[in-house]
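At this stage, I put together one protein's amino acid sequence and its backbone structure tokens, which the following lines show:
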Amino acid sequence: MKDKLLNRFLYYVSMDTQSDAFSESVPSTSSQLAFAEMLAKELTAIGMEEVTVDELGIVMGFLAPNTTKEIPAIGFLAHLDTSPEICGKCNPQITRNYDGSDLVINAIQNIVLDTKTEPELLQYVGQTIIHTDGSSLLGADDKAGIAEIITAMEHLINHPEIVHGKICVAFTPDEEIGKGIDNFDVKKFGAQYAYTVDGGQLGELEYENFNAAKANIKIEGINIHPGYAKGKMFNSQLIAMELESLLPQSEKPELTSSYEGFFHLTNIHGSVEKTCMEYLIRQHDKAKFAAQKQFFQNAVQSLQEKYPAVKINCTITDQYYNMREKIEEVFFMIAIAEKAMLDAGVTPMKIPIRGGTDGAKLSFKGLPCPNLFTGGHNFHGKKEYAVLESMEKATQTIVNIVKGFAEMLIC
């Protein structure tokens, strides 16, 4: 299992499958579609059935039940794309039998995994660390999840003595730009319950995430020759800065953790005449989320009233919601996953996701879908790494979840 995982993962991360938030195509990049077609061939080769890739880049494959026992159909999903923020074609490096010292990724660029700032590294002494060469991200998010799902399916096919119901597998595009599940056909997928394999370090089990919204602000100022500007110029850039100053300065991503929400300025560009801004608004609690959006609207409105000659347009769009309210209705899924981890020798860590997941959107589409660990760390950056032994545990956890559903007394 370990060798198959490693070989699959190394091959997958060598392929550049970045998504593109500015693309109008679906999937947003042709490289994702090529990757999807390659994975479909691999699923067919290991013995999966009814394997398809649609024109939107969604891969589906199935295992028929090998028992007459009434077992719910379960699914496992991962995403094809890597973050558009940084180069996605990786030249992966392998450090075997990690010795517990600082791990130099790129000496020339002084990119180092320092055990003082990365203390979790020390729990992997003696294990195999897969990391970048400092020129790209690794792509464990979520190619580790893909490798683990396929390896688990191959294990089940090769061990027919493991009783299971129908198993549904899907790989979807454009998760990193929030569009991966928009066109996903839950009915066609056919699972009653599912898990995304898209989490981080060993043991993560996630069933609650942020409520999320995006705010787009356009400020149209008035430009006048600066020599004659008194009482006439309204610099849209300065008004944009003023808007930022009206928001709680402690509620930023870099200053918050756990269940604390934030306002995150992700993009700003402009001139005296016109400035555009983009914010992410995040909060776990539904009531606080509504209050947070209203606070933002009030801040914009106060500036509009202060500067009536200026046009300020603000559009806030909800992106996804906290899946906890859906998972609480089927909490036995969490109990099954916890036991599956324990049986694999893993201590479950139930933590809130400080972000989103395809599982959140799927849960609100009617398919409850908590999230499992992959064994990766430091996603979306040059210091991203994955631990091979953790990936093996993730694969074992998937197999154990299949066993857990087969052992259910009540479906």
